Amino acid sequence: MLEDKNPQRTSLEELGEFGLIEHLTQNFELQRPSSLKGIGDDAAVLDFDNKKIVVSTDMLVEGVHFDLSYMPLKHLGYKSVIVNLSDIYAMNAMATQVTVSIAVSNRFPLEALEEFYAGVATACKLYKVDLVGGDTTSSNKGMIISVTAIGMGNEHEITYRSGANPNDLLVVTGDLGGAYLGLQVLEREKEVFKVNPNSQPDLEPYSYLVERQLKPEARKDVVELLKKLEVKPTAMIDISDGLSSEIMHLCKHSEVGCNLFEDKIPLDPTVISTTEEFKMDATMIALSGGEDYELLFTIDQKDFDKIKGNPNLTVIGHMTEKTAGAHLITRANTKIAITAQGWNSFKG
Ligand SMILES: [Mg+2]
To answer: What residues does the PurM-like C-terminal domain cover (predicted)?
Structure first.
């Protein structure tokens, strides 16, 4: 849980609630002109001039969304911010502020929370967002994290799930399936460790996958890239649950169908080799794996030349009339209906 092997343990009670927040947030400096007042009053004050405001919130629960036996707290702090920023970028907006609230048992020492906030601070710095509020409270079960992300954009740039049209191209960023396989690798090592606590896991061959799971990135760069290329997506969503369920969301909200081509789905070589090792199907993992935090969007065909050849962007299909439905066209050229079997947090 803690990176230091001989950690100091300061009890949370020593600081009290207000002292704790002050202690954990004292080194956060405001970076955004829109953050007029951050932490330190009853509420933050933000000023966005004439921009539209985008807000998204997410909750992470120990044992459901993360496992502290292999998730270092610093990574957890980082990831908690990243998954929320991803939702702001999925609106084609720029993330500007976050609030972070946590509930922990008082068995957590102060040093553990400092690790968590070090991860929050790294994400804030890298993505240029300000921490402007939050709360800490006690939990008598597991750790609970709630992050709210705030962003802004011009009205004509904000992109909804609902704008896709038949014949639009379906585009995905990066590659898929890595985060889910990283989780499988970590779960396997955890089981090995339970049987033999002296075993030294060799995660090196899986480093890309483990990083995708423990330290994901949000595609701020893609929002900036699209602006530079002068491409306004017609619809957009981030891939938190798996490609198939995100495609279903776009189809439903835009009232269109879709043809997705199996041979176009971008996969890292490690994803292909590890699915072979685990006797899994790489396409299936990309479709339902989840947690990749890539962006999935549609563009008008006339914009194809602007994105063509960009290594960050892959055209994986096109939208159709709603009546045609949503289908995967396999390598063998058979047509299979796509179902929303994306990763489900309520699944046992
Ligand atoms: Mg989302």
So the answer is: 166-322
Instruction: Please give the order of strands across the beta sheet that includes 335-337.
Output: 235-238, 295-299, 169-173, 313-320, 257-261, 326-329, 335-337
Question: Same domain for 289 and 212?
Answer: yes
Percentages helix, strand, coil for the chain (3-state, rounded to 5) are 35, 25, 40
Which residue range(s) make up the domain with 306?
169-337
Q: Does 42 appear as a known binding residue?
A: yes
Cα distances (angstroms) measured from residue 250 to each of 163, 190, 255: 8, 36, 8
Q: Is residue 5 part of a domain?
A: no
Does the annotation place 117 within a ligand binding site?
yes
Amino acid 207 reads S
- Shared domain for 36 and 132, answered yes or no, is yes
The one-letter amino acid code at 320 reads: T
Which residues in the chain show pLDDT less than 70?
1-7, 340-348
Confidence (pLDDT) at 100: 97
What's the pLDDT tens digit per position in 134-155? 989 889 889 999 999 999 999 9
* Residue among 123, 144, 124, 146 nearest 58 (CA): 146
Query: What pLDDT score was predicted for residue 16?
Result: 76
Output the pLDDT for position 341: 64
Structural domain count of the chain: 2
Q: Any known ligand binding at 240? A: yes
Whether residue 193 sits in one domain with residue 145: no
| Span from the CA of 190 to the centroid of ligand 1 (angstroms) | 29
Tell me whether residue 162 is in a domain. Answer: no
**Tens of pLDDT, residues 20-32:** 888 899 899 999 9
